[in-house]
Amino acid sequence: MRRTHRPARPARPAAVARLAAAAVVTGLAGLAALTGLAGLAGCGKQGSPPAKGPRADALPVYRVSRDFSLPASATWSAAHRRGRLVVGVKDDQPYLGERDPATGTYSGFDIEIAKMTAASLGFAADRVQYKPIASANRETALSNGQIDYYVGTYTINALRKKQVGFAGPYYLAGQGLLVRKDEKDINGPRDLKGKKVCSAAGSTPIQRIERDYPDATPVTYDTYSVCVDNLLTYQVDAVTTDDSILLGYAAKAPNEMKLVGKPFSKEPYGIGLAKGDTALRGALDDAIVAHERDGDWKKAYAATLGLSGVPAPVPPPVDRY
Ligand code: GLU
User: Does the pLDDT of residue 85 top 50, yes or no?
Assistant: First the structure.
């Protein structure tokens, strides 16, 4: 599957411009879904500029621990036997976890966190297999062993800790709001009364809207990129999730969308893993701390999430429980 060359651009009516902007964000699958042109899938992203992603040469290379062994971890032992680590991720979140449809390559800050921790556990980058898992399916995927661990904007909280374990946190985000560029009425969550606000099913942001802003009309999909398509085509009035995620969509279509207001929650990102595997949790905590100390974390941030415009923060302290 190859990306086709860009055709000369005809004058575009506003609706078409909007669809093209949506394609920037969601790739061709999103555009095909919007236009009903399912047959286009796989032909390339006609009419939209190439998505700017992290430059591969700016990414750190992580030292692989050759003699690492963790027999106390059932997850690590099984991965070691199969010679491959399976990491659950997001594939449509720019600068965090994004799959390039042309090459199948994953990039973003969460992908780097996956790679650096995998290297500490003895798995080189070519021994890591990424599996996209939607927000609502993470706990199930971890409990039934579909994935070895999960790195994808996954907020640590008490409710989720009943079902899964968390290493970290390795980053602190906050809930935000994304609206169309010409939106004047929505400047914060209090303005959502009577407005359609879109988020991912099973996410903490949609739960907060339902609990704290009951006058808003929640709309849920599996992924945030579908919400963004809906925002650009006037099906919803706002998209809500972590500011880190929204900044990525806004950075890719700055003439179409903007973030408004201040972050209104704390979302500490953890690496999700099977609940009982305390040996793996400890090893992942050690790996996060080591890569924060040796500068890898900062370099990885600068080459990925930093591209959406926010300078590297100090990472939150790891919480060993
Ligand atoms: N961090 C939030 C959560 O874990 C929102 C992002 C996401 O859905 O991955 O629910």
Answer: yes
